[in-house]
Amino acid sequence: MEQFAPACPLDILMLPLTFPSGDRRRWLLAVALALLACAGAARAEDGYALWMRYVPADATSSGGYRAPAGDIVAPERTATQRVAREELQRGLSGLLGITPRQRSAPGGRAFVLGTPQSSPWVAPFSRDLDALGDEGYLLRSTRIGGHEVVVVAAREDIGVLYGVFHLLRLMQTGAGLDRLEVRESPAIARRVLNHWDNLDGYVERGYAGGSLWDWHTLPDWQDPRYIDYARANASLGINGSVLNNVNANALSLSTDYLRKAEALADVFRPYGVRVYLSARFSAPLEIGGLRTADPLDPDVQRWWRDKADEIYALIPDFGGFLVKANSEGQPGPQDYGRSHAEGANLLADALAPHGGVVMWRAFVYAHDVPEDRAKQAYSEFVGLDGAFRGNVLLQVKNGPIDFQPREPFHPLFGAMPRTPLTMEFQITKEYLGFATHLVYLGPLYEEVLSADTHARGSGSTVARVIDGSLDGHALSGIAGVANIGDDRTWNGSHFDQANWYAFGRLAWNPRQSARDIAADWVAMTFSRDPGVVTPVVDMMMASREAAVDYMTPLGLHHVMARGHHYGPGPWVDGGPRADWTSVYYHRADRDGIGFDRTSRGSDAVSQYAPDVAEGFADVERVPESLLLWFHHLPWEHRMASGRPLWDELVHRYTRGVRSVEAMQATWDRLQGRVDAERHRHVAAFLRIQRHEAQWWRDASVAYFQSLNGRAMPAGETPPAHPLAYYVSLQFPFAPGDGR
Questions:
Q1: 402 an active-site residue?
Q2: Cα(465)–Cα(473) distance, rounded to whole angstroms?
Q3: Over the stretch 108-147, which tens digit does the pLDDT of each residue have?
Q4: What was the pLDDT predicted at 738?
Q5: φ, ψ (nearest 5 deg) of residue 187
Q6: Any idea what DSSP says for residue 123?
Q7: Residues 490, 370 share a domain
Q8: Number of H helices, E strands in the chain
């Protein structure tokens, strides 16, 4: 029976008051399950459990696996073995309403966990595990000693834990277990969250409260929430966490703070999550007492070697450093006339004896305002291909500007065959309405990962670049800028949890479907009822395009308000840098709009492979979704719809607002099928989103109309206020600003 079913009390009343002879146990189990379901219906949910709610399920929705005894045959000698067994016990208790028993051998229907080394019952499956690697796993329904079992087998303990979470996902989503045969291993080696958390507890571009890490009470007090954070990551196969902001404070590398990081590493270790730190390049000056941070200076090299030795003495499985250098005022090797490769190699050499890596961010731009900001990273890094040490990953944002609602894929993907590239996605929605706008990012991730760079011919997708398969790299990585804070929902809203979830699933396998991932998430988070899953998934899949429409249609980009990026600001001009303004990017005037990146303009198209560049440069072939990214066009340019560009632009803005209204209507129809507390919360946020979508539409239309002097298209409602009203709005305390 479904949790939160309004008829739940009647289900109990309809149970027989007597039971047939010999069926007492079955009757008692039915009563217990009904009571559990009713308790769930009455219990308010605040989102803390994420997608690991493990609510009671009937035989159909639990995959038909009947385990009345709930036996678990599993080793428990290591910490990871224990948490794998405990997670399965927790899941079975919730899903099936049973108390699992720990046994030494199968004696009926049972779950068998382990590695060939830890369990004699798994040893016969050793050959099946050879191709799955250290993190892979096998799930199989079979018979051992005449008994029906579900085996979760792996070469290493962490693979068993990942397999347990996969098994529980199947049970939560109603997949059958009778003919279970699953072989899984990750496509990408380093699957990492980047936390932009400051040491004072503030989260830059964070919209879910303060930092999860209480540096003041660490290392002595380890909040139990740290364990749940590690569980959530392990459930997705995320195996790394960068604890501090890329705009790093050198104190993060001091001995006192390293001991705090050590405490977190100890909590995370059983769940396979390695700790990383953002390293400030100038740390040798700021906390080391040196007079320089020049990467070629012997004393500087010695300081970093000693620091690496100190870190690994405390955290033997330390993952490595993330570095933002010579970008937005951060110190770096260019301060000393050195290259990014020389800076990265300094740290890589210090980490190499310990097996650590450097993730060097390619988000850079020059002190002088460039002709085209979109060209900066490519211009600075492509000539360094092959100059980096073997333990350096170049971390590249998904697009060439900065996490916009829509960008073309970054031209560096496919352009550096001798350098492993890490994808950097944003999970937090800095440019997509913060936590209050429902925007499922799975389609954005999928769009980028499936984009064909044509770097080595057709089929050279971005996914193949970052998983190493295109150019034969064993080292691979993907990073997500997290929006995880101390809010009870973890992410600031219930639907923002789906973006953490989608990132983790795609980090494990970048060829998965965003729709399928959304369906799993809805089933585990809200309900397995198809009457809930289908409309909510449809709503989620349309949400990103809705946001693009009401914020940045037709390839517009970076038209947000200055600094905090809350709300529209297409009029933003002036200030210290032209490329921090909106007018720099949209270039609208009386005659037209858009940034010309063809050979007649900045020629940014030439940074892509010829087949891609030709398509982007051709106004007839470029996708309309990127039209104004690559072309400056007159307002009367005829669109595929037959409308002039101006009419189409206004239509897209309005369509975005209407899409949010459709989301509201869908959610309203689900009242009573989703628990009341979460339904109210989401409904309130959708009202905020509807109001702000209209604000985006009206402010943007009013501004562009002030330039082109054109009448509103037929059937379109004029903005509610004059342009001056929208320009006058101020938000000095918008959350998540960089301070």
A1: yes
A2: 9
A3: 889 999 999 999 999 999 999 999 999 999 999 999 999 9
A4: 66
A5: -80, -25
A6: G
A7: yes
A8: 22, 16
pLDDT in tens, 346-404: 999 999 999 999 999 999 987 788 889 999 999 999 999 999 999 999 999 999 999 99
Are 670 and 532 spatial neighbours (Cβ–Cβ below 8 Å)?
A: yes
C-alpha dist (Å) from residue 567 to 3, 207, 458, 495, 552: 38, 15, 39, 20, 12
pLDDT band with cut points at 50, 70 and 90 for residue 69: low
HEC string for 525-582: HCCCCHHHHHHHHHHHHHHHHHHHHHHCHHHCCCCECCCCCCCECCCCCCCCCHHHCC
- Which one of 184, 219, 235 terminates a domain? 184
Is 734 a domain residue? no
Q: Rounded to an integer, what distance in angstroms lies between the CA atom of residue 657 and that of residue 695?
A: 9
CA–CA dist 546, 567 (Å, integer): 15
Residues 642 and 703 reside in one and the same domain? yes
Residue 619 resides in a domain: no
Is the Cβ–Cβ distance between 429 and 207 less than 8 Å?
Answer: yes
Same domain for 33 and 84, yes or no, is no
Q: Are residues 36 and 63 in the same domain?
A: no
Answer yes or no: are the C-beta atoms of 253 and 347 closer than 8 Å.
no
328 is catalytic: yes
Q: Of 160, 184, 208, which residue is a domain's last?
A: 184
Beta bridge partners, 358, equal: 321, 392
Alpha-carbon span 45 to 206, nearest angstrom: 23
Summarised one tens digit per residue, pLDDT across range 297-346 is 999 999 999 999 999 999 999 999 999 999 999 999 999 999 999 999 99
d(CA 627, CA 585): 13
Residues 472, 450 share a domain = yes
- Residues 244 and 352 both lie in one domain: yes
Mean pLDDT across the chain? 93
pTM tops 0.90: yes
Greatest Cα pair distance in the chain: 87
- 534 lies in some domain: no
Residue 330 belongs to some domain of the structure: yes
Residue type, 229: Y
Same-domain pairing of 194 and 178:
no
Q: Which candidate in 200, 256, 310, 328 is catalytic?
A: 328
Percentage of residues in the chain with pLDDT exceeding 90? 88
From the list 372, 380, 430, 467, the catalytic residue is: 430
Taking the C-alpha atoms of residue 172 and residue 524, their distance in angstroms, rounded to an integer, is: 6
Question: Can you state the percent helix, strand and coil of the chain, rounding each to 5?
Answer: 40, 10, 45
Q: Are 506 and 188 contacting, i.e. CB atoms less than 8 angstroms apart?
A: no
Is the same domain home to 581 and 670?
yes
Q: Is the peptide bond before 219 cis (omega within 30 degrees of 0)?
A: yes
Q: In this structure, what CATH number is given to the domain that contains residue 449? A: 3.20.20.80
Q: What is the pLDDT of residue 739?
A: 64
Catalytic residue check, 128: no
Phi, psi of 197 (to 5 degrees): -95, 130
Collapsing DSSP to helix, strand or coil, 633 comes out as strand
Q: Which listed residue (11, 402, 538, 624) is catalytic?
A: 402
Using an 8 Å Cβ cutoff, are 74 and 87 in contact?
Answer: no
Q: How many domains does the chain have?
A: 4
CATH label of the domain that carries residue 558: 3.90.1330.10
| Structural element, H or E, at residue 358 | strand 357-361
What is the distance between the terminal CA atoms of the chain, rounded to a whole angstrom?
50
Domain, as residue range, for 27: 1-43
Distance, CA of 64 to CA of 176 (rounded, Å): 6
